[in-house]
Design goal:
about 130 residues, mainly beta, 2 helices
């Protein structure tokens, strides 16, 4: 069965949110996605990303998710997002590249890009629902 690496950058990085959706434990590493920017969604507490040359998104790379787990995350992400294949980098404490990994990431669908504000979103600003 095919397994998927997933780069997460928003509400899914919050353990309370992730653990409510995905019960199994997975290896996860801090990772960097280049040429994308993370913005707040207008009127929402969570972000979306879009391609933007020279931009960087810090997040978490989660390894070996099953098709079933991906289907749960697809439902959680809803109609605004689609998964796209990307390459993310994992760096050491000295900011040296350790390895690049193939992964998927949820990006805002083109028809919903107008919902992104120009305000950059920071994970520290997110408060998960009770």
């Amino acid at each position: 069965m095919k397994k998927t690496n997933l780069f997460i950058y928003g509400s899914l990085m919050v353990p309370k949110v992730w653990n409510k959706l995905i019960k199994d434990k997975h290896r996860a590493l801090s990772a960097t996605l280049f040429d994308f920017q993370r913005y707040a969604l207008s009127g929402e507490p969570y972000p979306g990303i879009r391609q933007e040359n020279g931009a960087v998104v810090e997040g978490v790379l989660v390894f070996n998710l099953s098709r079933y787990e991906i289907s749960i995350l697809d439902q959680y992400e809803g109609v605004l997002y689609q998964r796209e294949a990307v390459c993310v980098g994992v760096y050491d404490r000295s900011n040296n590249l350790v390895e690049n990994y193939s992964a998927e990431v949820y990006v805002i669908k083109p028809r919903y890009l107008h919902r992104l504000s120009r305000k950059k979103w920071q994970p520290s600003c997110y408060l998960p629902p009770p």
